[in-house]
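Hi there. Long-time user, first ticket. I'm pasting a complex I've been working with (about 500 residues overall). I'd like to know whether the download I got is complete or cut off, because the file seemed smaller than I expected. Thanks.
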Amino acid sequence: MKSRIIELLSAALPMVDLESDFLFSELDSLGVTTILMVLSEEYGITLDAKDATPKNLRTIDSIVQMVEGKVKSLKV
Amino acid sequence: MFLSHFSSLTPDKPAIICKGQVLSYAELWERVQERSRQLRDEGLREGQPYDFVMSQDVDSIVTYCAVQCCGASSILYTTGTTGSAKGVIISAKAWTANAENLIDRLGFTSDLVFIICGPLNHLGCLSKIFPTLMTGGTLYILEGLKDLNAFFEPFNSSHLSTFNFQLSTFTKFATFLVPSGIRMLMQFASKQLSAVSHQIDFIETGAAPISQHDMEQLCQLLPQTRLFNTYASTETGIVCSYEFSRYGCQPGVVGKPMKHSSVRIGEDGSVICSGDTLMSGYVGSPSGAPCPSEIHTSDIGFLDEDGMLHLEGRSDDIINVGGYKVNPSEVEDVALAFEGIRDCICIPAPHPLLGTAPKLLYVPKEKVKDLNGENVKNLSPFNLFTFSTFLRSRLEPYKVPLFYEAVPSIKRTYNGKLDRKAYR
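Hi, the file is complete. Here it is re-exported in full:
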């Protein structure tokens, strides 16, 4: 899942360093909403403002974790 | 000065809440007077332009009010049609006219909390400071919309009480949002928005066209809120506004001119504005040049039989990125300074949130000849990330292209100019 997310996000946000340890601080409001849009479309999950926290968007790994959690709760 | 009135009428009331800091009307007036004295001591006189950086903090707002208090002009930088940014001189009189236009049409009141969630160096948000403070309301300043949850904090009474602000049943909220901001909130925070709908008195949008679908969705989500689409630009000031929640969602309709403004349509269909909100001129234009009595915009439109202005597009190549104007040649000039680029063109591309976003078509360069044209140096392979980092370090964020495509060549006209029409 991680490599797919990196692929999707680097296409949508070519100028953001996705490997950064401070990913949230590199994003602007458009970057944050683009991530929510791209991931909710790809995985059929609902992501909203409450998910767009600095903690969830801190690194690419925390984004993967958030998506995994959402996908899991879909299956339950 | 309007601040002296409210500093005696409601001295303890918060005038500005910003980054955990609160400034009452009494405190604000004291700081504005002190800053005005400093500015006068530095030689600032009535009618003179004063150049300063406006950011999302209390200190900037104090300076902005002090410049007004001195009767001096402030300078706003905007996308010029010739390529580089232009400084637009806006007089104290024009700021007052802008504020009175907004108070009259949108209805600012003393029980209003106005949420500023866009950049204060842009007319859309900066123009809301005076109407709010002239009517004794409260400004709530946010850093932007990056944290969508922060937008909803002021609606919570326990949050506001930490700033010595008692939320009452009369307290109402209002904000200015560019259309892409509205789309962001509707798409990712519609539940939160709907939950506070009874507290929102009005929302004003502008700076970019808003679609009929977005207008209708917003009306549904906020049935009690007054919703306005405003026509304004840095050069003309705030000219028209249309309450689409009341008169119907029609794309491109920006309403009748406000009380200090008038509009006519030129022979070529362009919108021509006049009135007290107009700029005094550009920085660097010959001193002593008379203030323009009319401004010919690049917007194309018509006036209907009721005197309402309808906008139909622009006559120039400016790309409207979610309300921020981008001049493609500025982006191209910066891109061509990158060693690995042979040619490029910046064009508008559809974007789901912004409407349009800048896209760069580029021709990568592999080799360069030295100055005498003999030795050929191989360049390292073109790297898009390095390139976009280069652009980001030299352009304002909204001007940096969001999309990139390598192409074998760029179309040019017979005399070597970029053939922009071919890419429309």
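A couple of notes from our side: The first helix of chain B runs from residue 2 to 9. Residues 190 and 326 of chain B are 29 Å apart (CA to CA).
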